[in-house]
């Protein structure tokens, strides 16, 4: 699909470029950025006030919103394909890997070398 392809938001019925679409809280329908902001964060976005006739006119999510999201996200990885991703806590635990679709997702935990050495010493 081309980035300039317009898709109708399932919630507000406005045609927007595919690159500004997000899945809703249920993960089943694509909605525009403005509807996503209202649904997930309760913040009224500004996407519907702009001309969506070209992808250059579509606004990208501001860095302030990204910074706010990182505080409330969990990091995951797939044990089958080793894909790493993060997801907001409000979405809950993912059932399947978004890359390979296998049911092998675990929470990613940073472990330092000292902890790994200590755990391996306990095993042997």
SSE inventory with pairings:
Elements: E1 6-8, E2 15-17, E3 21-23, E4 30-32, H1 33-41, H2 63-71, E5 73-78, E6 84-88, E7 105-107, H3 113-123
In short:
The protein is α+β, with helices and mostly antiparallel strands and 124 residues long. The protein is built from 3 helices and 7 strands; from the N terminus they run E-E-E-E-H-H-E-E-E-H.
Structural class: alpha+beta
**Outline:** elongated
The average pLDDT is 76
Helix-strand pattern: EEEEHHEEEH
Cα distance, first to last residue?
Answer: 53 Å
Largest sheet: 3 strands, antiparallel
Query: What is the percent of helical residues?
Result: 10-25%
In terms of quaternary structure, what is this?
Answer: single chain
Molecular structure report:
By secondary structure, the chain is α+β, with helices and mostly antiparallel strands. 23% of the residues lie in helices and 21% in strands. The chain has three helices and seven strands, in the order E-E-E-E-H-H-E-E-E-H. The chain has helices at 33-41, 63-71, 113-123; strands at residues 6-8, 15-17, 21-23, 30-32, 73-78, 84-88, 105-107. The strands form three sheets. Strands 6-5-7 form a three-stranded antiparallel β-sheet. A two-stranded antiparallel sheet has the order 1-2. Strand 5 (73-78) and strand 6 (84-88) form a beta hairpin. The longest helix has 11 residues, at 113-123. The radius of gyration is 19 Å and the shape is elongated. 12% of the residues are buried. Residues 44-50 and 56-65 have low confidence and may be disordered.
């Amino acid at each position: 699909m081309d980035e300039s392809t317009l898709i109708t938001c399932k919630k507000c019925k406005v045609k927007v470029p595919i690159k500004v679409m997000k899945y809703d809280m249920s993960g089943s329908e694509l909605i525009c950025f403005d509807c996503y902001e209202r649904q997930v964060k309760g913040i009224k976005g500004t996407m519907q006030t702009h001309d969506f006739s070209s992808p250059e006119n579509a606004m990208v999510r501001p860095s302030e919103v990204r910074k706010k999201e990182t505080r409330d996200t969990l990091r995951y990885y797939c044990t089958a394909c080793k894909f790493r991703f993060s997801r907001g806590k409000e979405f809950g635990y993912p059932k399947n890997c978004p890359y390979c679709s296998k049911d092998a997702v675990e929470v990613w935990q940073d472990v330092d070398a000292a902890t790994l050495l200590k755990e391996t010493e306990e095993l042997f």
